[in-house]
Amino acid sequence: TVIFVFCWKYLPDSSNPKEANIDPLGAILSFVAVGGIVFGVMEGPTKGWSSSLIITSFFVGVIALIVFVAWERHTPRPLLDVRMFSDRGVRSGSFSLLVQFTVAFGFFFLTVPLLAFVFGYGPLDMGLSLMPAAIGLFPASAIAIPLTRKIGFRSVGTLGLLLLTGAFYLGTTLGVDSDYTLFAVVMVIYGAGIGFASPPATEIIVVALPMEKQGVASALNDVLRELGAVVGIALSGSIFNAGYRKSILSIEGFTQDVMDGVRETPAAAGLIAPSLG
């Protein structure tokens, strides 16, 4: 209650009531566009990339996206004014945020089977094992904005994305013979990447838009993060699923029911692993 009263009294009002955006058609089109593309990415490995369902899903998603952009350019009350992306700062910050959260959530999604099925951690241990990310995140995020003002967004943002890429690459080297030390190092690098990349990207979007558009800037920032998370989970899940199913094709000596269960989830693979020697 105290925080609510404080915010109500002291935070500036950045809204513009004359430009309140109620755009039901835009909301529906954006839902269909994101839903169609994400469904295709997630279900492609299972249904088959050439199946009519997946092709239709991608087609509907792309068409909905094109219609959404066209509609938003012409409606007087757009859900998302796509003309904002003519500003270089908005484009750069948006692209950076989308890539960051695609990589970040894709990475997090893949750490779950690694920690659970390879390292054998329980829920509490899995949560605690991610804490080293804070060692890289907090100092990096603290100096990211001042550093951006000195050397520019391009340099700091690129540094953050390179660190994320490095963390992802090191993560691919983890296996059954790896110990937690290497994973902790990966998490520190991962945290530093987010710390360097995310704050400058958010600020460059906010600075690029006028005061009355700060609500739009905040909403755009949130949408890009959520969209990146959805795409990252969908992509990493699809890649993991395809690789996992391919890796068990050569396993023999088990009943069809057992293999069907193993194909459905890596958790079932642990039941037959001891018998493989």
UniProtKB/TrEMBL annotation:
<feature type="transmembrane region" description="Helical">
    <location>
        <begin position="182"/>
        <end position="209"/>
    </location>
</feature>
<keyword id="KW-0472">Membrane</keyword>
<feature type="transmembrane region" description="Helical">
    <location>
        <begin position="92"/>
        <end position="121"/>
    </location>
</feature>
<keyword id="KW-0812">Transmembrane</keyword>
<dbReference type="GO" id="GO:0016020">
    <property type="term" value="C:membrane"/>
</dbReference>
<feature type="domain" description="Major facilitator superfamily (MFS) profile">
    <location>
        <begin position="1"/>
        <end position="277"/>
    </location>
</feature>
<dbReference type="Pfam" id="PF07690">
    <property type="entry name" value="MFS_1"/>
</dbReference>
<dbReference type="InterPro" id="IPR011701">
    <property type="entry name" value="MFS"/>
</dbReference>
<dbReference type="InterPro" id="IPR036259">
    <property type="entry name" value="MFS_trans_sf"/>
</dbReference>
<feature type="transmembrane region" description="Helical">
    <location>
        <begin position="25"/>
        <end position="42"/>
    </location>
</feature>
<keyword id="KW-1133">Transmembrane helix</keyword>
<protein>
    <recommendedName>
        <fullName>Major facilitator superfamily (MFS) profile domain-containing protein</fullName>
    </recommendedName>
</protein>
<feature type="transmembrane region" description="Helical">
    <location>
        <begin position="159"/>
        <end position="176"/>
    </location>
</feature>
<feature type="transmembrane region" description="Helical">
    <location>
        <begin position="48"/>
        <end position="71"/>
    </location>
</feature>
<feature type="transmembrane region" description="Helical">
    <location>
        <begin position="127"/>
        <end position="147"/>
    </location>
</feature>
<dbReference type="InterPro" id="IPR020846">
    <property type="entry name" value="MFS_dom"/>
</dbReference>
<dbReference type="GO" id="GO:0022857">
    <property type="term" value="F:transmembrane transporter activity"/>
</dbReference>
